[in-house]
Amino acid sequence: MKKILAFLITALLCFSFSSCTFFKEQPCEVALITGKSGITNRSSAQGAHTGISKYCEEKGINYRYFIPSEDSTKAYLEQVEKAVSKGAKMVVLAGFYLKEAAEKACSLYENVDFLLVDCYAGVTDKNVHTVTFREEQAGFLAGYGAVTEGFTSLGFIAGFDNEISRKYSNGFIRGVEYAASTKGITEVTVNHWIAESLEVKDRIKERANDWYGKGTKLIMICGEGIQSSVTSAANNLKGTTIGFDMDQAGYSERYLTSAIKALDEVCYKTIEAYYRNKGWDFSRAGKVLSYGIETDSIGLPTNKGSFRFSAWTVDDYEKLYAKIKSGQIIIPSDEPETVICKVTYYESGIPEPEESSVGESSVGFNDMSD
């Protein structure tokens, strides 16, 4: 009996020690810091996570993502600190809202390497590499496609005014103007509004409802926090939408297309290069690389379930894409001047319930020849 008891005690102790070892938190070598919406935001963080996790899984590298309890610079920095305390040698910050946190983190942790995705922090330290995209090209394709499909009463709603939303917006308007000018269309309108808020979702939906109700047929969305509000309005009033950053086709049948960035592929290749070179090499250390059609990193999804055009074929899309890639069509990122496209700029910010549209702007357009 004593032998049995001794055996059981020994077994229990062994199990206890092995359990402690088994359940001990593994060190983290690569860390991703996201916003509160995490890795399912259908934007920068999700795309970065997909690419980075794939590479790390293939190579057996310990990878974790860290999600803050709120969207604030303080909360983001707390997650960076947590990641570094877990042993992270590479920290990735993904999303424009993490811009300020990225600036501070890169100076606080000089012995940690950073990859900034869509942050626009302007950091040039040798332990930092920044990845951005030429959203104006994707916006151009989306705007061109919308007009080609027959839409001439359009809208553009962004969550905030920043480098990303401006490039999407400017490209979208250029695409609308270019399509109208090449197809002999004499009148196209674009309502343009920047909410400057993600919190008052009902009010954002009200504005989209108002536009759809007054004749706007299609709205391009730019901002993860406003997506559900505009899509809900489109669902209710049978309006059409265009998504941003990632393929949004699965989100609603109301999406005509999405202006997408190859976030996953670019992040995968960037991390791959980092490990291959044992750090940031001279072409990346302290530098910004902007990806576009030139590297097949921008465009519209062409698979059957996502390319929902009926008047624009994939072949015709690819011909336009090729013209941009070859430099035959140049798409600047600054605000365009328009001749055909009449843009009505609504005052930024959430309006009072009784507020109606304000001001409109219509100026000349810089021609882009075929």
What does this protein structure show overall?
With 370 residues, this protein is an alpha/beta fold. The protein has two domains: 30-134 and 264-294, Response regulator (Rossmann fold), CATH 3.40.50; 135-260 and 298-345, Response regulator (Rossmann fold, 3-Layer(aba) Sandwich), CATH 3.40.50.2300. It contains ten helices and 13 strands. The termini are far apart. The model is unreliable at 11-24 and 355-370 (pLDDT under 50).
Give a quick summary of the entry:
The protein has ten helices and 13 strands. The protein has 370 residues and is an alpha/beta fold.
The CATH architecture designation of the largest domain is 3-Layer(aba) Sandwich
> What fraction of the residues are assigned to beta strands by DSSP?
15-25%
Largest sheet: 7 strands, mixed
Please indicate the count of domains: 2
Mean pLDDT value: 91
Secondary structure layout:
Blueprint: H1 2-23, E1 30-33, H2 44-59, E2 63-66, H3 73-85, E3 90-94, H4 99-108, E4 113-117, E5 128-133, H5 135-148, E6 153-158, H6 163-183, E7 188-194, H7 201-213, E8 218-222, H8 227-237, E9 240-245, E10 255-261, H9 263-276, E11 288-291, E12 298-299, H10 314-326, E13 341-345
Parallel strand pairs: 1-2, 1-3, 3-4, 4-5, 5-11, 6-7, 6-8, 7-13, 8-9, 9-10
Antiparallel strand pairs: 10-12
Helix pairs in contact: 2-9, 3-4, 5-6, 7-8
